[in-house]
Amino acid sequence: MPSDHLEYGSAEFDRGVERLLASYRAIPAGAGVRLAKKTSNLFRKRAENPNPGLDVSGLNRVISVDPRARTAQVAGMCTYEDLVDATLQYGLVPYVVPQLKTITLGGAVTGLGIESTSFRSGLPHESVREMEILTGDGELVVARPDNEHKDLHFGFPNSYGTLGYSVRLEIDLEAVKPFVELRHVRFTDVRALQDELVRIVDRRVYQGEPVDYLDGVIFSADECYLVLGRQTDEPGPVSDYTGNDIYYRSIQHDDVDHPKRDRLTIRDYLWRWDTDWFWCSRAFGAQNPKIRRFWPKKYLRSSFYWKLIGYDQRYDIGDRLNARKGQPPGERVVQDIEVPVERTADFAEWFLAEIPIEPIWLCPLRLLDPAPGGRKKQPWSLYPLLKGHTYVNFGFWSAVPVTPGKPGYTNRRIEIEVSELGGHKSLYSESFYPEEEFDELYGSKTYRALKKKYDPQGRFTTLYEKAVKRA
Question: Could you say which residues of the chain have pLDDT below 50?
Answer without folding.
Answer: 1
